[in-house]
Amino acid sequence: MSLDVAAVRAQFPALASGVAFLDAPGGTQCPQSVIDAIAAYLRESNANLGGAFAASLRSDELVAQAHETAAGFLGCRPEETIFGQNMTTLNFALTRALGRTLAPGDEILVTRLDHDGNVAPWLELARDLDLRVGFVEIHEDTTLDLDDLERKLTGRTRVVAFPLASNALGTVPDAGRVIALAHAAGALAWADAVHYAPHRPIDGATLGIDVLLCSPYKFFGPHLGLAYGREELLRSWPPYKVRPVPDEPVGGRFETGTLAHELLAGFVAAVGYVEEIGWDAITQHEGALGRRFLEGLPDRCTLYGLPTMEGRVPTFAFRVEGLPPRRAAERLAELGIAVWEGDYYAVEAMEGLGLQPDGAVRAGFVHYNTLGEVDLLVGALGDL
Question: How far is CA 189 from CA 54, 151, 163, 216, in A?
């Protein structure tokens, strides 16, 4: 299925600015439908839950709809979905709840591909509970070393935390194999899907993921966090919550305080937008964008990551010879090209590749980007 890119771009007000937004790994732009949904909630239904009046009843309906939508997007049941401030905050909360079931000497495995949002919560938990955290290494080509994972699994391993896609390098690990190895050792599979969610569909239950987290602002929605937890697992954890919060649905036990209802409205609209476009069209177009970039990348740019679109999403980390990453990003910004630089919280990956303290330049494409924008970036890198 081909994508009508012009029609897609017409739905995003920010893209009319003329800036080439190649910064999607840091957050995507929002279509008008998302903006309208947020505004409509604040205009027509802005109330807390549980009241007898119309605005409150509409808010009740919205929260239920948001959980139904999240279940469809993540491949789970509505009661297994959890909303929060952001992925990192949710992960600190969920790891803390799991921590009530752990014992000193238990082990957590994380990977060198992970964003620190799926590393730091485990390090802090280990500090508090006398746990051990091990790191699964990556190969020189930035793929995950599954043999190293298998070697490091022990009878004390309780969790294997890993990304479905690297936010820094675009690498997509073999999730099925990671999950199978974790479960064979009696450990939970704890997935960061933040960077995967805008590029490919998620089916957490079919994959067998125990806990999965993502961020709607990375897939054309507003700033909030979303998680899925297997029901049996969530029921086994004593939650941190205020006493009046009901125990059902089970995911609601982990939603602290009043949710950002207007953002839930935006989330529902964002998922509706993605479904309207369709995953086949998205992945086909993104593949073309990625191939165009890789074919045109100048020789004086050093790419860190896989050199083809096999096993990756269209996110690319590179350095420009003779220019610090920050200066390269500034020069590109002067030309109307938005990219990121630094380590993007992928601390272990950048240290492992010898790129600290400056990190690298990162360009990332989503389906609203054009081949012309890729050519603009490649041409500008050649001029730099």
Answer: 42, 16, 10, 21
pLDDT tens string, the chain, 384 residues long: the values are 689 999 999 999 999 999 999 999 999 999 999 999 999 999 999 999 999 999 999 999 999 999 999 999 999 999 999 999 999 999 999 999 999 999 999 999 999 999 999 999 999 999 999 999 999 999 999 999 999 999 999 999 999 999 999 999 999 999 999 999 999 999 999 999 999 999 999 998 889 999 999 999 999 999 999 999 999 999 999 999 998 888 999 999 999 999 999 999 999 999 999 999 999 999 999 999 999 999 999 999 999 999 999 999 999 999 999 999 999 999 999 999 999 999 999 999 999 999 999 999 999 999 999 999 999 999 999 998
Q: What is the dihedral of CA 355, 358, 360, 365, to 10 degrees?
A: 140
| Alpha carbon distance 308, 34 (integer Å) | 33
Alpha carbon distance 298, 293 (integer Å): 10
Three-class DSSP category at 273: helix
In sequence order, the 6+-apart residues with CB closer than 8 A to the CB of 307 are 294
CB atoms within 10 A of CB 27: 16
List the structure tokens of 90.
Answer: 């949710």
pTM reported for the whole predicted model: 0.95
State the sign of the Cα–Cα–Cα–Cα dihedral 103, 104, 108, 114: positive
Token duo for residue 160:
């294997």
| CA atoms of 145 and 143, how far apart (whole Å) | 6
